[in-house]
Protein 1
Amino acid sequence: MNERIVVVDDDRMSLRMVRRVFDKAGIEGHYLSCEKEFADFMDGKVVPDMFLLDVHMPDVSGFDLLKRIKTEPLYRNVPVIFLTGDEDVRTETEGLHAGASDFIRKPFAADVLLKRVRNTIELNRLHNNMAHEIRVKTEKLSHAYIQIVQALAASVDAKDKYTHGHSSRVAAYSREIAGRAGFSEEEQDGIYMMGLLHDVGKIGIQDSIINKAGRLTDDEYAAIKTHPAVGSEILGNISDYPELAVGARWHHERFDGKGYPDGLKGEDIPEVARIIAVADTYDAMTSNRSYRNAMEQNKVRAEIERCRGSQFDPRFADIMLQMIDEDTEYRMRED
Ligand SMILES: [Fe+2]
């Protein structure tokens, strides 16, 4: 591997000495002796493996050059070593704080110069490779995370013959409501996940009850009503994402306090659960069931309006109504 190093020093003697060492070691050097030459090099957009800078030069200081290097995105990750004749500790401290990787004192021994230069380049390469790998892995992981959650949500939906895609629609509607309500992108992503998983507790309920076409008995209804608690218990085990359990536990609470499982009221219900509650009910009305097709849009609208303030937080019900009004072709439903 052929290293490319830019050396800036006003002292021609010193430049020549560095050149002799680098030539012998097969290093490709660019030897510059003033600010003008440095500026020309930077304009060339060639990215070296390292900058070796003299601290004191008549027209410019090495610190100024360092600052320029660190503010240019193209050069920001290139390591910088200072060449200094100073015995001044303060200069070194300042330089290190400003982002220099190391200092080499003049006069230097050839093998010390080479060793330190190569160590720094190698370390920087390792660091850059690692940073790259971490970025790639993190992206992969978060992609896998979303897919696993989607698979889990789909497996819950699959238990119910009539609710295909329910969870992903509720997730999408919830994200839209949150976006319109001013939640940040990151919060919207979180709400989307909670929407996907809101019914995960249904995993623990018999398929025969979930798919029963006729009226539920009291016992069966009681069984259905356990799904928020079951869901939040399942998701509560994911300790790195404690918020996932929130939507599952409280999406059947009502704004007037008459919901379940905890009978929370108004603002005591977490906002995200209030959002999912609207989205959930909307999707139930706009998807096909064993006993009926999707309800007509004006009836759905009237129902959301009727329950505004009783079942739903008026703020999120209003946003849902706005979404309905914009949906002139009634596309927002199960297809
Ligand atoms: Fe539910």
Protein 2
Amino acid sequence: MRTDHVEKVVEIEKKSFPAPWNRSVFVNHLKHPEFAKYIVATIDNVVVGYIGLFFGGNYGQITNLAVDPAYQNQGIGIGLLTTIIRFALVKKLITISLEVRVSNSKAQELYKKMGFNFVGKRQGYYQETGEDAYVMCLQLEQNTKIIP
Ligand SMILES: CC(C)(COP(=O)(O)OP(=O)(O)OC[C@H]1O[C@@H](n2cnc3c(N)ncnc32)[C@H](O)[C@@H]1OP(=O)(O)O)[C@@H](O)C(=O)NCCC(=O)NCCS
């Protein structure tokens, strides 16, 4: 992701999440490639999806993943996740975790398909709605699945 991608990313962010991150959050993270990695998917040079990862030591945390509603169910989400897992392997991370709303079965299915397992639940994790989050984890050395 480059700074000129951020405007479109924020548009998709607003369509996707009840508490969307604003432009300055993404711009600040892009200044820190030593711990933050963002990848975009584009069609005809227009951003249609993105994924973010914080990483340090052997550990990574997916910060956000979204695909523009007009382009969902075409494999773009899987493609973004696959690409960030490849990046994590290069960085020699051994664990990637994430939080996902308990109601978001579509995202959970996608994460399970990529080898993530449910490891816990955070009560009332999403402040804006009070919804609980499942914590899901991928152990990279043992069960990484890369879909070509
Ligand atoms: C979750 C999200 C990123 C998936 O992106 P996508 O490009 O539509 O996903 P894909 O087309 O790659 O589909 C991946 C898998 O999701 C699952 N999936 C897709 N549609 C589904 C549905 N309606 N119900 C359940 N699972 C579904 C399937 O496992 C699918 O694999 P398959 O097509 O081989 O069956 C997208 O729906 C999105 O942006 N949602 C809003 C934001 C969000 O919830 N982000 C995740 C936060 S944790």
